[in-house]
Amino acid sequence: MDLGLSQDEIALQARARAFSRQVARPRAAAVDRDEQYPWDIVKALAEAGFLGMTIPKALGGQGRSFLDAVLVIEEMAKSCTVTARIVVETNMGALSTVMAYGSDAQKTLAAELVLAGDKPAICITEPEAGSDALAMRTRADKRGDRYVINGKKHWITGAGVSRLHLIFARVFDERGEELGIGGFLAVRDEAKGLRVTKREQTMGLRGMPEGELTFDNLEVPASMAVLPPSGFARGFADLMNAYNSQRVGAGTVAMGVAAGALELALDWAKTREQFGRPIGEFQGLQWMLADMQTQLTASRLMLYQAARSRGPEGSAFPDPMVAAQAKIFASETAITIVNGALQLFGARGYSRELPLERMARDVRMFTIGGGTAQVLRTLVASKMLGWKLPQARDGYAPRRSLRDAAE
Predict the structure, then answer these.
(1) Chain centroid to CA 87
(2) CA-CA distances (angstroms) from residue 183 to 36, 107, 151, 237, 243?
(3) What does the pLDDT average to over 67-79?
(4) Are the CB atoms for 364 and 407 separated by under 8 Å?
């Protein structure tokens, strides 16, 4: 199938496929079993040039596109979901936010850390503010030439291994007046008051820590406030645009896991014999394989389209509606494909001797993280209806309903 890829993109994809099979695949089971962040793989990714691909050339990166990152992510996810997530986090998300809205000093800081192997952490979710990010309570109080941050975040990907943190907080000026929600950069081990207070015990993706962060009078220089042109009052919506790339990345990880599971199922259907012939000759299983391939192809096309898209008004990020649709479809069909592959293996698929049980645990995360499938459906529907999501009279205070936001 012609996916409209250039020769350079095809070569990048092939290089990522080789890395995935030779470096990531042999380590995947141990990363899951030991629940340890794979620093050896990170080092190999950095040496191979897969970290910070989207960083501009002027800052030491390759200036590659989100589609380039998607091509690499898919190949990594076929072998090791944690490796694929590292590629997402070092090419999208918090990094993309800094590259789009940060100062020159902030961009240089982020580029140096990522190219050296750091996976930035984006710190939004709180115990009482998950899908409703606007309900966050973490606050940043202006004190002269710095901000003092207090609060708590949880389910932060990379907690304890990430150095660079993009922390979202409600901003107050020196008079105590709230200005909006802003982002602040802090480097772990260099900033007093940033502590990892818990690691979550996760079902899958066990080599990528998810944890709780506590900010206790964390002082951040005012120069480390990530400030979009619209300022604090309306800047939160700009900063959150980075999630459009993150969602494309997350959907691609799910799709890549599904592609890896389908490859295993297809090989098994050709070699496993029952009743004197390969099981792939039975029509019922052929239909399963055909449905899985159809779903995978549709997911890939949607994700490629999303990676190539851009939001309104010259946005540096994918179109929010296209990205949301791609993540919904890819993450949900990935669960179906992996479960189908496991079913095709029969009892052996239920065994921990095969990677399918790990794939089934890992892929389940992607209808939840980065925006649940239900919240993303609300986003898509609001676009269809011409309503705005509950955002703000001044950019950050919630409205009563979607209908109110349209008025």
Answers:
(1) 9
(2) 29, 14, 14, 11, 14
(3) 98
(4) no
Tell me the per-residue pLDDT of 162-205, one tens digit each, with 9 for 90 and over.
Answer: 999 999 999 999 999 999 999 999 999 898 999 999 999 999 99
Q: Give the model's confidence band at 237: pLDDT under 50 very low, under 70 low, under 90 confident, else very high.
A: confident
Write out the H or E segment, with its range, that includes residue 248. Answer: helix 242-271
Q: What is the pLDDT of residues 292-329, one digit of tens each?
A: 999 999 999 999 999 999 998 778 899 999 999 999 99
Decide: 168 and 199 in contact? Cβ < 8 Å. no
What Rg, from alpha-carbon coordinates, does the chain have? 22
Other beta carbons within 10 Å of 65: 15
What is residue 14's DSSP assignment? H
The amino acid sitting at 142 is K
Tell me which long-range contacts 45-49 makes (C-beta under 8 A, separation of at least 24): 45/19, 45/83, 45/86, 45/87, 45/90, 45/117, 46/115, 46/116, 46/117, 48/15, 48/19
The SS3 of residue 139 is strand
The answer to whether 171 and 178 are in contact (CB under 8 A) is: yes
C-alpha closest to that of 148 among 221, 232, 94: 221
Under CATH, what is the fold of the domain 7-115?
Answer: Butyryl-Coa Dehydrogenase, subunit A; domain 1 (1.10.540)
- What's the token pair of residue 10? 């095809």
Of 373, 355, 81, 375, the C-alpha closest to 202 is 81
Q: Which architecture, in CATH terms, is 121-236?
A: Beta Barrel (2.40)
Query: How far apart, in Å, are the Cα atoms of 4 and each of 14, 80, 91, 301, 305?
Result: 15, 26, 22, 10, 11
Q: pLDDT by residue (tens digit) across 336-391?
A: 999 999 999 999 999 999 999 999 999 999 999 988 999 999 999 999 999 876 54
Residue 130, pLDDT > 80, answer no
Sequential DSSP letters for 275-330: TTEEGGGSHHHHHHHHHHHHHHHHHHHHHHHHHH---TTT-SS--HHHHHHHHHHH
User: In this prediction, what percent of the chain has a pLDDT beyond 70?
Assistant: 94
- C-alpha to C-alpha distance for 383 and 48, rounded to whole angstroms: 40
Name the class of domain 238-406. mainly alpha
Domain ranges in the chain with CATH number 2.40.110.10: 121-236
Q: How far apart are CA 372 and CA 332, in angstroms?
A: 11
